[in-house]
Amino acid sequence: MRSRRPALWLLGGVLAATLAPLPAQAQDIAPVGDPIDVALTTGPLLPDEVLRSSALTFPSILEAFEREAASRADQLGADGAFDLMLKGEYYDRLTGYYSGGFGKVEARQPLRPYGAEVFGSYRVSSGDFPIYENYDYTNALGEVKVGALFSLLRNRDIDSRRFAIEDTRLAAAQAQLDVLLVQLNVQHEALRAYLRWVGAGEEIRVFEELLEIAEARQIGLTREVSEGARARIALTENEQNLLRRRTLLEQARRDFQTAANSLGFYLRGSDGRMVIPTREMLPDLARMRQVAPPETLAATPLNDVIRDRPELQTFKIALERATNRVMLRENDLKPSLNASVELSRDFGQIGPGGPGFDSTDTVVGLTFSVPLQRRTARGAVQRAEAELRETELRQRRITDQITTDVSNILANLGAALKLADLANAEVKQASQMVAAERTRFRLGAGEFFLVNAREETAANAQIGAIRAQLAGRLAEASYNAATMNLKALGLE
Q1: Residue 201: which of 246, 255, 243 has the closest Cα?
Q2: Domains of the chain (ranges, CATH numbers)
């Protein structure tokens, strides 16, 4: 769905340009872009911008809205079963002994209570009819008839038309919940892709710094070897380190490009086309808020957390639809007993049919039918009951699964935060060891091998800290999705 705001902003810009004088050097008005496009081309890419982009442009979400629209259309179509029906009929003889003919117009309105239907008609005839068509006579001004039909057993409380109306209403409600579920899943995956992209960018920075240290050292070692102050083996050893660190950097760049491609699947411009983020769009981690502690997230009781999950709401609706289906099939087992009442009156001068048509006629009737074996109906009832029990069992399984998933997410989040603290402490200690080993090496008491080992250990500790922090943020994102934190997922 294309936003209308850019057009409004552009119109406002044009009006402002008309009313206010431009500076002498100003020649053109800068075009105003869509907010999504502006966010993707200016400044660092923040999570809120990613979530806004995916919420407004991701195809799965737009598809879910179209499915909801289709369900609403089905609901409108089912309501059409109770539309007012108008019917016209004309009958005349062009040749022959008899000249009788008539015209008739009739309106019928189905009603929901008792499967009833009311009707009214007007009929007027002219000419002579044979005795076996005597019913077609009317007085000079015609005949007016009103009546109603009622179902007393089968189709009294439910029939296929009323079932379809209720079923399409429930299906539309399910489609609306499906939109929310798709939004939750898409926003969750978009946020996870974003966090992995940020983490991959941080890992590149670590390996670049590690490589820069080795390259700077290579310059110094080359000079020392040429001056005879150090053995050539030290230069060879550092070249080996250079190759290893370049390999690590290339692997990190590959992982970053893969993460960028994955994020680009969710990051889209206003026209819906994918936007692959570049490294220049990486944010400053200091601008990203800290992960909430598990104690804060777990303050809300678990039952309240999962009660409004769209999957469980969908199952409630599915149970209601299955129950209605059982009722419809049980309705087929009942015998059919229908009642009718009609009231008719002719007006005007008595016609060729005689005085017998000049009266008010009230007619009532009953019709009864019942299938003797009803095997088809019994089979349909048993199937509907089995589907109802299956839905109940599936609802219980999904409820338990969601409860388990939320508990596991909280456990993972708590462990991730503790591991992140340990990883940060390890980074500090590794940095201290690197500094000490470099000092020893400069003083001639250390070994070149130990310096490289300490540097790579420190780099590995930084990578571990980045991944531990990423694990915590991923767990928080999963918790927000599981608990339907719409604000955190950019859906409010």
Answers
A1: 255
A2: 35-58+163-320+389-482 (1.20.1600.10), 87-158+335-385 (no CATH)
